[in-house]
Amino acid sequence: VVFFLQEVVSEEGEEESNGVNLMEFSDEILLHILSYVPCTDLVLNVRRTCRKLATLCLDKSLTHTVLLQKDYKVDKDKVKHLMRDIGKEIYQLNMAGCYWLPSSTIDHVTRCKNLVKLNLSGCHVTSLRLSKMLSTLQHLRSLAIDVNPGFDASQLSSECKATLSRVSELKQTLYTPSYGVVPCCTSLEKLLLYFEILDRSREGFMLSGQLMVGESNVPHYQNLRIFYARLAPGYVNQEVVRLYLAVLSDRTPENLHAFLISAPGSFAETGATKNLLDSMARNARLDALQLPKAWINGSGLLQHLKFNNPFYFSFSRCTLSGGHLIQRVINGGKDLKSLTSLNLSGCVHCLAPESLFRKAEDDIDSSILESLVVSCCNLRHLNLSAAHHHSSESIGNHLCQLLSRLKHLLSLALPVCSITDVAASVEKPPTTPNLVPQTFGRKVRIGIQTYPRNLGDQANQKIESSVFWALMGSLRFLETLEIIGSSFSSAMPRNEPAIRNSLPPCVRAQSVGDSEVAAISQLTYLQSLTLAQLPNILTGSGLVNIGLHCQHLRTLSLANLGMMGKVVYMSALMDMLKHCKCLRDLRLEQPYFCAGAQFFQALSHCSSLQRLCIVSRSGTLQSDAVMSFMANCLEVIMCHMFMGESLTVCKNLQQSIVRSFQAERPALNVVIFPLLHEDLTEVIRDVPMRHLDEITLFKSRVAEEPPNLWW
């Protein structure tokens, strides 16, 4: 856009041969166009092109909110000049995830005297710098920061604490056991806590989650309306969050309407948490709820909680049955038009009337899903992944047919076994003599497979009449889709060694393959796609259709498609990538993946690509091809490869990339490391949280958090 504007201005004096000049458009239209240009480019480049743009680029609509969180080209000098030129005009500043900027960059924020909202998550900020900065921001009401080892609240000045006392929204990411600035924020209405504390220090010492609790550092929750806590794996995170909850258990805020705790694994209920939940049941009317599974399983809590106009529910990994879901949450079919986001990931019995004598693989009760669809007709985000949702043979009651009624869906996550036609699932999947079993093993040499280039060439694979094809056709405005095998687990989990074995796919999923993938190409507005553990991928032909028709695709994640002994879809993937001009993030997880010259040549067509992650057991790479790719794709700032190469090869390539491109790409983050190396977890802990959470680690992200939880 910047280049285009500069070209237009340079041609202003030339004779116009076709239509009007862009500069003749109204100010309103030009302001709309300029809103798509990064603020740093507007202020430091575009406004210097002509007088008209110089005035428009400083319009309040463009300088009121400055977003730097994914402006990977911004450096400390640009931030300095930006704050100098328009600092007083900035009311909202988002620098989240700017991990590459030195801590001294934060000093320039003091020029933004009128700041109301400030997001510094992922930035390097010491206690002293935070104190100095906040002392000058008297109008601040919303703050997001990290609390790292070495943070000392006693270093905060009285002026800083005065500013914090007026803050009503706080997002705090903890990398060390601490209350951070929470005790200073006496007017809190929204509190978001992200616990990323490791159980062991770099030196191998076990950490403790115990804090010194005194009158001066007790959190103030009396005005709290929203409480959200997300825990990374580890017992220390659980210990610390209990200390934050201890104050809530004494007295539940009168205006509390959203209470959310996302905790992986087992997070046992205690006497204090039970008192908290009992108090909430008596005094609160909630609009959003998420609790650890141990707090819900086997309890009558949901029967006693009161809801107002709920917009978000998450019962992820709970043993909640469909009967309880309908009776206690939906209240027997109560009108829940206000509900826009629902997460039932890993809730294996949520579509069955009861769970006591039911096997996880049994058919679902379609009447429960129908009640859910009718009552929650305005759902925009729905997650049903990590469970076996098998439809019965009843006509018209297939899961896909019922979900097609949700016309407002923007994001959807489903298990692979839920999208297959019942008739197809009972038939034996097609086999050919040269296919490799769905297990790890020795590489088998097979010929180069050809695949049909369009749907018309796919004999006996046309699925226009299938339930999944119809579902995709009815959800034309879907932006995010995840189809994930119910037994899939990534080879690279958090804080643990790489998984060496994977569970076989569900029997019902055996027929899901190329034709189902081709059905996804109907989603014209698709922006993010995740496909994992689709066993019947034979050629990957459906990927080409997606590349051709889903031109807005920005994020693509593929994992364990087809046979496990060979990447059967490589040729189709390379053809697909040639059409993905808007693709920014690509994650590939597949055993025996060969990241060679042909692959990187095809990937070079993705001119917008910024982040690449490849996870491959026994995978190989060509260093020269990687270097050539990095030189051709100037926007790439993240390259993560966890392959089967030796440590020496990985280190040499990583050093070469950093040495060659770090100077011109300040945000460059490169990690190339053997997947099965014992030190993998130590390497992972140094990856910036933005990349780790958004792409490097595999997880379902649909309805993971309430919509618009933070800006």
UniProtKB/TrEMBL annotation:
GO biological process terms held by the UniProt record: SCF-dependent proteasomal ubiquitin-dependent protein catabolic process
Matches recorded under CDD domains: F-box_FBXL18
Gene that encodes the chain: Fbxl18
Name listed for the protein in its UniProt record: FXL18 protein
PANTHER family with a match to the protein in the record: F-BOX AND LEUCINE-RICH REPEAT PROTEIN 18 (PTHR16134:SF19), F-BOX/TPR REPEAT PROTEIN POF3 (PTHR16134)
Stretches that traverse the bilayer: none
Pfam families named among the record's database cross-references: F-box-like, LRR_FBXL18
Gene Ontology CC terms, in alphabetical order: SCF ubiquitin ligase complex
Domain of life (superkingdom): Eukaryota
InterPro entries linked to this entry: F-box-like_dom_sf, F-box_dom, FBXL18_F-box, FBXL18_LRR, LRR_dom_sf
